[in-house]
Amino acid sequence: MKNTFSLNLFQKCFYYKCIIVICLFLFPSITATQVSAKKSIKVLLISGQNNHDWKRTHPFMKKALDAAKIFETDIVLTTTSEEVKNFSAPFDKYDVVLFDYNTTDNWPKTTQEAFEKYVKKGGGVVIIHASNNSFPQWPAFNEMIGLGGWGDRNEKWGPYAYWENGKLKLDYSPGIGGSHGARCDIKVINRNPQHPIMKGLPQVWLREHDELYDQLRGPAKNMTILGTAYSVNSKREEPVIFTLTYGKGRIFHWVCGHLWEGDNDMRSLESIDFITLLQRGTEWAATGKVKQKVPDNFPTEDKAQYSTTIKIE
């Protein structure tokens, strides 16, 4: 009996040890997966109507976000006026909404109200280039983006905003809303180096052959300027990177990133600074923090830099 009991006890101990070992291997894996899923930032990328080449820009932006390994991005496209006028989306499922979008048509009133509620409650928003041309007749959207252009915008939409004597100046003089010169090289000046998005970026860096919007105008409320660039067209230091708040929501506005349909010059989007700011701005809009590191090959004042892996197709 002693021998039998000892053998059974040994077998039982071996069995339980195996269970423990399996758990040690299995549970950390499950936990890591759960933590990863919990920490992923859910992005809704809206595209499909734009006077720029949205067919190439929206998959490129998703690829840029994927490269950061912290985002989970869904894409929704509205390609016709009818689709815009009937658009709805489950905004509350997402941490941030990214606009690669330029439409003069309006979403249904119920969708506008749902989006306003989403942002006021803390939903994030990212505005890229011509997205600030959208929805000129939607007051809340104009307040969210701070500054916009075209769509018959004028002094009724709000002041011009530009950098002068070390601070933001609001100019209420009458005139158009939105202009730009020919594509050109741009030197971006970091105006807020302690902001989470801008921390670690150089004081000045070079962008090559992009379109620099100027004379944008809008409500310009709750706006923090992060970066400016001198426009030879307006003869002013124009805001090109800025943030806003709308209720509890955070908005990141990056004015650069021009690409016409059929254009073979990809520098404005494939530049390291465009990709880095898209990634960092989206993270900040979603969380209020930026944990991503600035890449070692970020542009300098005299040299632009381009991605070799995140390319437009």
From TrEMBL:
Gene3D superfamilies noted in UniProt: 3.40.50.880
SUPFAM superfamilies: Class I glutamine amidotransferase-like
All residue ranges annotated as the ThuA-like domain in the record: 42-285
Origin: domain of life: Bacteria
Family annotation (PANTHER family): GALACTOSE-BINDING DOMAIN-LIKE SUPERFAMILY PROTEIN, SECRETED GLYCOSYL HYDROLASE
Name of the protein described by the UniProt record: ThuA domain-containing protein
Annotated source species: Candidatus Gallibacteroides avistercoris
Lineage: Bacteria, Pseudomonadati, Bacteroidota, Bacteroidia, Bacteroidales
